[in-house]
Amino acid sequence: DAKTTQPPSMDCAEGRAANLPCNHSTISGNEYVYWYRQIHSQGPQYIIHGLKNNETNEMASLIITEDRKSSTLILPHATLRDTAVYYCIVRGVGNTPLVFGKGTRLSVIA
Amino acid sequence: GAVVSQHPSRVICKSGTSVKIECRSLDFQATTMFWYRQFPKQSLMLMATSNEGSKATYEQGVEKDKFLINHASLTLSTLTVTSAHPEDSSFYICSARSPLAGGRNEQFFGPGTRLTVL
């Protein structure tokens, strides 16, 4: 079972920041928070991951609360091509596979 | 880097036939590969995990004799759906992982194969 809770859907105006929340209140100390997205009829795409520090890359920023019980994925300037289902996943080290929850369907509106 | 391909991208077959789907890691060696399936408007469901050279580990409820997985090399895994039925129609997605791929240990996903069984 997925260990995360996300809102089922969100809308965002094009050019604005999209802030996608995720709750993972049962996360363990050695578990990472991963974010993937899936554009319609494609395979999931890696976005970013983190352990406890905030992370930023060319796609997004990941803000993890100090208690690590929740996080927020930030797309700084959403475009129409960012419309997708966004999955927040908690995974430990080693060879455990990613287990997907229901994700958040983000619709970017012109 | 870290590209995963699948073939075919789309297949239509008759009920009772078998279908083979290939998954390849193009620019890295995948020590572990995963197979997922996704029904319309649902999330990805893990079917099985395979390590190169050993038998796949199937998730509860997935029939190992129906979904044959072969991970014969570090760059190729195949999923064969045997005696396919309409309820097997789904989007099948493979994923590959290597600690060295892209400098990270996350999973990289293929583009998926849409199977339609008539």
How does this structure look, described?
The complex is a heterodimer of chains A (110) and B (118). With 110 residues, chain A is mainly β. Helices cover 0% and strands 45% of the residues of chain A. Chain A has a 5-stranded mixed beta sheet with strand order 1-9-8-3-4, with no helix packed on it. Chain A is globular and about 40 Å long. Chain A starts with 8 loop residues before the first strand and ends with a strand. Chain B has no helices and 11 strands. Chain B has strands at residues 4-7, 10-13, 19-25, 32-38, 45-51, 57-58, 67-73, 76-81, 90-97, 107-109, 113-117. In chain B, the strands form 2 sheets. In chain B, strands 2, 4, 5, 6, 9, 10 and 11 form a 7-stranded mixed beta sheet that branches. Chain B has a 4-stranded antiparallel beta sheet with strand order 1-3-8-7, with no helix packed on it. In chain B, strand 4 (32-38) and strand 5 form a beta hairpin. The mean pLDDT of chain B is 91. The A-B interface holds A 34, 36, 38, 41-46, 49, 87, 95, 97-103 and B 4, 6, 32, 34, 36, 43-46, 49, 51, 91, 93, 95, 97, 104, 106-112, 114.
Spell out the blueprint of helices and strands:
The complex is a heterodimer of chains A (110) and B (118).
Chain A: E1 9-13, E2 18-23, E3 32-38, E4 45-50, E5 55-56, E6 61-64, E7 70-75, E8 84-91, E9 104-109
Parallel strand pairs in A: 1-9
Antiparallel strand pairs in A: 2-7, 3-4, 3-8, 5-6, 6-7, 8-9
Chain B: E1 4-7, E2 10-13, E3 19-25, E4 32-38, E5 45-51, E6 57-58, E7 67-73, E8 76-81, E9 90-97, E10 107-109, E11 113-117
Parallel strand pairs in B: 2-11
Antiparallel strand pairs in B: 1-3, 3-8, 4-5, 4-9, 5-6, 7-8, 9-10, 9-11
